[in-house]
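Can anyone check this?
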Amino acid sequence: METFDHVIQASFDEVFQKDYKLKGNWNTDFFKNTNPIVLELGCGKGEYTVGLAKLNPNINYVGIDIKGARMWRGARTAKDDNMNNVAFVRTRIDLINSFFAPEEISEIWITFPDPQPKKSHKRLTSSRFLGYYQKFVKNDGIINLKTDSAELYAYTKKVVELNQLEVLADTDDLYRSTIVDEILSIRTFYEQQFLGKGKPITYLRFKLKNNIYLEEPEEE
């Protein structure tokens, strides 16, 4: 990983309660273009980061995960294929505000995250984490959640409804719906496993407003 110039592995001391040097400078210093930047949070092996980047060469993609052994696969593919619109950042997602400046990001993909059944504040679609994203996503930026967890899907819908966020797409069984397209058909390693077990895949796409206080739904 250390030999890949498109992989950022900042130390804890470089980002804890301070800004990383690329914050606000991703377009000028890293990608060297003015194209939109899209994040994949908890990118795992980077299937979506790489897959989306291949489909959209005029958009920059950044995959984020804490586990370097998983991320290596996507980073290796991006290097082998000479992709210049892909980056990977190895960090904890709760430190993400150290990496990106206001309105620097256009869209976020959250693909098969840990549903955190007993700890709602750790869910990547909780009001806490959406509050983090508000600080760097463009106003009305897009959030995509793709998950096999019916519980996380239902919880996220509650967050969206409570905060009156605009829903752009919503299905509790993606591959039996009418909204499957080329992007949504990119399948991660874990998704293949879930589909093999007959689990339906859910998908929710919504806009995130930056100028509102986000409320957290009550747990049942």
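Reply from J.R.: I decoded it. The radius of gyration is 17 Å.
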